[in-house]
Amino acid sequence: MKVKKVLVSQPKPASEKSPYFDIAEKYGVNIEFRPFIKVEEITPKEFRQQKISILDYTAIIFTARTAIDHFFKLCEGLRVTIPETMKYFCVTESVALYLQKYIVYRKRKIFFGNTGKLDDLVPALIKHSGEKFLFPVSDVNNGEYPLLDKNKIDYTKAVMYRTVSNDFAPEEKFDYDMLIFFSPSGINSLLKNFPNFEQQDIKIGCFGPTTAKAVRDAGLRLDIEAPRPEAPSMTAALELFFKEQNKSSKK
After folding, report:
1. Does domain 5-36+169-250 have CATH number 3.40.50.10090?
2. If we measure between CA atoms, which residue out of 236, 188, 238 comes closest to residue 214?
3. What is the pTM of this model?
4. 44-101: per-residue pLDDT in tens?
5. Which InterPro entries match (predicted)?
6. CB 88 within 8 A of CB 59
7. What's the CATH fold of domain 40-163?
8. Nearest to 186 by CA among 198, 196, 194, 177
9. Which residues have CB under 8 Å from 191's CB, separation 6+?
């Protein structure tokens, strides 16, 4: 079956220059954007139950812009003023630059990786091993970080937001040839919304090893996976898929 309609489980890109739009035009496919999950804030009262004092920490680890938003919003609710000496460690430069929304950006206190993987940050964390790190996460984060533990990084995970299913309305059509996921929570939401979901000819693509594992653990077939050497991004993986699809249709 030829893929003509794709659902990307993320918000629609703000810029028309997104590679998704180029792919849609180039290969004549319909790409729609609809998050399967949404993020909700936790209240200061809920956060206090974790018995974590933000000002006990000298550095913060951020893996996403969402974490930055909820960290500073929670600080505001708790009436906590973050000192200028606080250091920030981010998984990518784009996440690091997002800090400008809340703080004066100074290179001497902001560090970032290149790959988007937490492991890529470890050398910088080791270099600043004297710091006490706070690691904002969502309530569904069950991740373990063996490299942080192995290198004796002093860090504490703090739940600062919750991830919930963004339920489909009864009247919403679900007639896609391909579904693209970016987190295990998205897979959980799919099965919550459609408990009798049968994949059949529907292609499933995902970004990241934990999402890939969630797809397989759910008994689903994984057709497209990123990152990998020839496809470092989800859009690169889609481009390769449609190139191959076009070749096959011309045979």
Report:
1. yes
2. 188
3. 0.70
4. 999 999 999 999 999 999 988 899 999 999 999 999 999 999 999 998 888 999 999 9
5. 4pyrrol_syn_uPrphyn_synt_sf, 4pyrrol_synth_uPrphyn_synth, UROS/Hem4
6. yes
7. Rossmann fold (3.40.50)
8. 194
9. 197, 218
